[in-house]
Amino acid sequence: MYEPYPVPDLARDHKKFRYSSLWNFAKQDLKLLFFFLLIGGLVGYGMGYLASCLLAAFAFFLFLQLRSLYLVNEWISNRPYDVPPNLNGIWGALLFNVYRSQRQERVVQADMVGLIDRAQSSLVALAEAVVLTDELNQIEWANPAAEKLLGIQYLDRGRNLLSILRQPRFIEYFNDIDKSPDGIKIKSSINDEHYVQIKLTPFGSDSHLLVAYDVTRMQNLEQMRKDFVDNISHELRTPLTVLSGYVETFIDQEDINPRWKRAFEQMQSQTRRMNALVNDLLLLSRLENDKQIAKNQIIDMPSLMNQLFDDAQAYNVDYGHTLNLNIDSHYDLIGSDMEIASAFSNLITNAIKYTPRGGIISIGWYDDQDHGYFMVEDNGIGIDPKHLPRLTERFYRVDSARSRQSGGTGLGLAIVKHVLMQHGAHLEVDSIENKGSTFKAVFPKQHLYCVDHAD
């Protein structure tokens, strides 16, 4: 094995040293002491000064030990990376351990430096922006892409990140990362026509890793899709209205042929379904584009729950379910009554549609002081757990045939998700196949209004 510099004799015998006990090295010092005492004793016995010679021999041995100690200290203090002194005994063992530890440390340091260089080179080559901040939110390091996407330059190191990225939405996100676990999308501070997705990850003691990438193309495609759906939905409303009017006119004719009447009834059913789909698409488009009405209305929850229950009773006529209403909260909701009513109604009608005849459906509103809960529980067909993560995707159906038969549009839960997002809430779903489902809308405390303390 190649050595960068000469190694002491003791250090070369790795195997012997590694598996020898400290006593083996101490015996070298004891043998040396015994040798000096023996020589001193013989000389002193011959000269008649036995005690003095023994004392002199011990003093000489002590001098050698102190000299070794001096050499060890001088090497560790002044020349730790030079070749260590070639000593025997316990001091040699000590030197070898220090020497070996230093070599291992240098190897580890070299590996770490190489790894850091490779990691830094990789980060520099990334098209995504990477920024590191310290406990004071000051920029420690940023790659070149950070300048292109976020306007963070090399000279900005040491500056507060929030003094550069001053968009209110980013500051809000920075102060409450958990509120947006997937990050946020903002306009680039360099180019207003570009959009950047930003994700913050905390590490260490209040430090952060910021990763950002350009999502302009995805944003444009998404906007094109939304505009297309919005425009098509608007364009379909007029012909659907005309078709519905003519179909109703023909159905109302008393002398119509029964065969034609059946055909017109099917046409009426399908036009109603298409009209419901168009209305849902328009509502979803409005929610996604943030074209919402004010969210600061105080919604009278007992009144709303009773209205929803009455509507559910009317819808339930053809299903024959047992409906229960439970209100166990003194809180009202703060938000849009129209959107909240639409979301809750979707959850209730879904439970009615997907529960076999004669089922039991419970509708409730309650709180635990920190959150408000709207709940719909049924003992219907249930949902396979593999479908739960995708339930709120638009047009996603667990059973397409059953959905078409029930007249569903596949947009109900997508609307529910977006309405809840607009109100800072989220949807929780628990379901067991063939046993039933529980859909729970969870609202944060800041969207609750305590009726007991109303002025």
Defining key terms:
455 residues, alpha+beta, Helix Hairpins, five-stranded antiparallel sheet, 13 strands, 13 helices, Beta-Lactamase, elongated, five-stranded mixed sheet, disordered N terminus
What's the SSE blueprint?
Blueprint (H helix, E strand, L loop, with lengths): L8 H4 L1 H5 L3 H26 L2 H29 L10 H37 L3 E5 L5 E4 L1 H7 L17 H8 L8 E4 L7 E9 L3 E8 L1 H36 L6 H31 L8 E3 L1 H15 L6 E7 L2 E5 L1 H17 L6 E8 L3 E8 L21 H7 L5 H11 L3 E7 L3 E9 L3 E3 L5
Parallel strand pairs: 7-9
Antiparallel strand pairs: 1-2, 1-5, 3-4, 4-5, 6-8, 8-13, 9-10, 10-12, 11-12
Please describe what this structure looks like.
Member of the two-component regulatory system PhoR/PhoB involved in the phosphate regulon genes expression. PhoR may function as a membrane-associated protein kinase that phosphorylates PhoB in response to environmental signals. Pfam families: HATPase_c, HisKA, PAS_8, PhoR. One of its GO terms (biological process) is cellular response to phosphate starvation. This is Phosphate regulon sensor protein PhoR. The chain is an alpha+beta fold and 455 residues long. The protein has four domains: 9-120, no CATH class; 126-214, PAS domain (Beta-Lactamase, 2-Layer Sandwich), CATH 3.30.450.20; 219-288, Orthogonal Bundle (Helix Hairpins); 297-453, Histidine kinase-like ATPase, C-terminal domain (Heat Shock Protein 90), CATH 3.30.565.10. Helices cover 51% and strands 18% of the residues. The strands form three sheets. It has a five-stranded antiparallel β-sheet, sandwiched between helices. The protein starts with 8 loop residues before the first helix and ends in a 5-residue tail after the last strand.
